[in-house]
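Bench log, entry 3. Co-assembly request; chain sequences pasted below exactly as received.
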Amino acid sequence: MSGDAGSLERIWRAVAAIPPGRVDSYGGVARRAGLPGRARLVGHALKVAPGVLDLPWHRVLNASGRISFPEGSAAHLLQRRKLEAEGVRFKGPRVARAALKDDGSLDRLLWGPPGSS
DNA sequence: AGGATGACAGTGT
DNA sequence: AACACTGCCATCC
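Structure output for the full assembly:
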């Protein structure tokens, strides 16, 4: 199916590793899963992920720090609500700069500041 | 088999 | 900052 099932598993694990209140990009997840350049595969992996895994899918945003679902859609609203419930603030359509850091580099935000919680 | 689609990303303008 | 275009690759029709 998805190339090989192992890729999906690695992606699911990478997503599960994102701490509450933190976010990461599709590309970042792909890279941490050992699949650089497979950002689109991450989207597919989340789409087909078994619900029982209970993955924090809402913590995955696109490279612009924005939710990839169409604005106004139920999915978009749900994701935003889940993030705000974890303390992630939004600045218009994208996550606040505080969460994005200065560069806007999501992956740096996630693993960059050591010991920051 | 071939083209379109998509929970993306990088670069250029 | 917004938009267009290209690269990427698994699925779908």
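Chain A is about 45% helix and 5% strand. The helical segments of chain A are 5-16, 26-32, 39-48, 74-85, 97-100, 106-111.
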